[in-house]
């Protein structure tokens, strides 16, 4: 399968690199078009008011790779229309550094938006995210995004699962169906982790910015939000808490259904 891989953590993300290596090892034809710098929580934004630069680079991934100084949606649009030699058969976005589970996170996620952009091109879109404990996330950031041995082993398990699951999901998704598959992997992700179908948790996310400082600015404050989900059906967050791989089907053709 010919797969376009993007992300929102940037072209240098080890999480994406491990996904690409696992896909290639599984026999997939992979092309990478990813943001030059991190674009987390940019949602479906596109660079309307400036020119966007793309550059082919060699990261030693074993596949054609481009860096784009824009958003994940910029990357998918430019990649499909101008960079890849042929249209891809699927768009795979990730592996995201951290969870993208619940409505509160899905709607703002650059990772999910990259997959959605694939769906807007009539292609299967698949978003992939790795849940992390907050201390693990903070330690990763302190190391400049380089995972330690334990986290790298977990990441490779996740990448291996994804290389098996994602192409099968793409093949089973009809063209022009406006369907995005949102996969979230638990921390830690075991070799025998099972996939569970889920719905996005109903999470409220108030208070995302700090009060105004002396210089007149506000800063984003990370919060997990308030989960207001009923006990059933199984939500993405509940699945992750139980050690399952969460698979939510986001069918955008049903928005506004009567």
Q: What would your notes on this structure say?
A:
It contains 7 helices and 11 strands. With 258 residues, it is α/β, with parallel strands linked by helices. It has a single domain, classed as Survival protein SurE-like phosphatase/nucleotidase (Stationary-phase Survival Protein Sure Homolog, Chain: A, 3-Layer(aba) Sandwich), CATH 3.40.1210.10. A 9-stranded mixed sheet has the order 3-4-2-1-5-6-7-11-8, with helices on both faces. 45% of the residues are buried.
Fraction in beta strands? 15-25%
Largest sheet: 9 strands, mixed
Give the termini distance in whole angstroms: 36 Å
The average pLDDT score comes to 97
CATH class: Alpha Beta
Number of helices: 7
The backbone outline, from C-alpha atoms, is globular
Name of the CATH homologous superfamily = Survival protein SurE-like phosphatase/nucleotidase
Structural class: alpha/beta
List the uncertain runs: none
Q: What CATH architecture do you see?
A: 3-Layer(aba) Sandwich
Total number of strands: 11
Indicate the radius of gyration in whole angstroms: 17 Å
* Strand order across the largest sheet: 3-4-2-1-5-6-7-11-8
The percent of residues in helical segments reads 25-40%
Order of helices and strands: EHEEEHEHHEHHEEEEHE
List the topology elements.
Layout: E1 2-6, H1 14-25, E2 29-35, E3 54-57, E4 65-68, H2 72-83, E5 90-97, H3 103-106, H4 110-120, E6 125-130, H5 134-142, H6 149-172, E7 179-185, E8 195-198, E9 203-204, E10 226-227, H7 236-241, E11 245-251
Parallel strand pairs: 1-2, 1-5, 2-4, 5-6, 6-7, 8-11
Antiparallel strand pairs: 3-4, 7-11, 9-10
């Amino acid at each position: 399968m010919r797969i376009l891989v993007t992300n929102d953590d940037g072209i240098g993300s080890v999480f994406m690199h491990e996904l690409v290596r696992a896909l290639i090892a599984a026999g997939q034809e992979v092309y990478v078009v990813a943001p030059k710098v991190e674009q987390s929580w940019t949602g479906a934004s596109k660079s309307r008011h400036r020119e966007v630069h793309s550059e082919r680079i060699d990261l030693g991934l074993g596949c054609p790779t481009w860096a784009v100084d824009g958003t994940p949606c910029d990357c998918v649009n430019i990649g499909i229309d101008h960079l890849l030699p042929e249209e891809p058969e699927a768009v795979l976005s990730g592996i995201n550094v951290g969870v993208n589970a619940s409505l509160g996170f899905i709607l703002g996620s650059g990772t999910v938006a990259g997959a959605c952009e694939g769906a807007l091109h009539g292609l299967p879109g698949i978003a992939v995210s790795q849940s992390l404990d907050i201390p693990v996330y903070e330690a990763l950031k302190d190391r400049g995004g380089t995972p330690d041995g334990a986290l790298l082993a977990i990441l490779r398990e996740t990448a291996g699962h994804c290389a098996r699951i994602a192409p099968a999901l793409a093949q089973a998704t009809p063209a022009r169906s406006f369907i995005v598959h949102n996969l979230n992997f638990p921390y830690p992700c075991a070799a025998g982790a099972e996939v569970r179908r889920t719905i996005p948790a109903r999470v409220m996310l108030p208070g995302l910015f700090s009060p105004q400082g002396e210089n007149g600015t506000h800063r984003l404050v990370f919060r997990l939000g308030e989960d207001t989900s009923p006990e059933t059906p199984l939500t993405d967050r509940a699945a992750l808490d139980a050690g399952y791989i969460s698979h939510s089907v986001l069918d955008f053709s049903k928005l506004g259904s009567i």
